[in-house]
Design a protein that fits this description.
The protein has 141 residues and is α/β, with parallel strands linked by helices. It contains five helices and five strands. Strand 1, helix 1 and strand 2 form a beta-alpha-beta unit. Helix 3 runs parallel beside helix 5. The longest helix is centred in the middle third of the chain and has 23 residues.
Amino acid sequence: MMYKKILVPTDGSEFAKKAGKHALFLSKVSGAEIVAVSVTENNFVNGLPLDDEIYQLNQILKERSEENLKEFDELNDDDLKITHVIREGSPARVILEVAQEEDIDLIVMGSSGKSGFDRFIMGSVADKVVNSAKCAVLVVH
């Protein structure tokens, strides 16, 4: 199958970097555009007034998202077209929203590496995306 658009969520982890390399390869062979998304997960401050400390924390989280996207760009040896998206919210929800908005054909993402109790309580982002995406999803372990 030829892909037109591939979405790659990145959080700077080794899992995300491995997935990014796969996505770049698939983009190169298919000519697909890549949409790289980094999610600023700051749900713990939703609804709170933005005092200076919370504002500074939000800025740090956004800067980290920008760094994640720059690290992803460094993997791009072939000068492939990459669109950056930074959003706030729940990672799985944001990934699914961007996939729908951008008319994505394939999501390539790393597994989170969670296991045991953490995975039972929170679930993994990859599991949520695989179970809800309207397009193909490749999870790289």
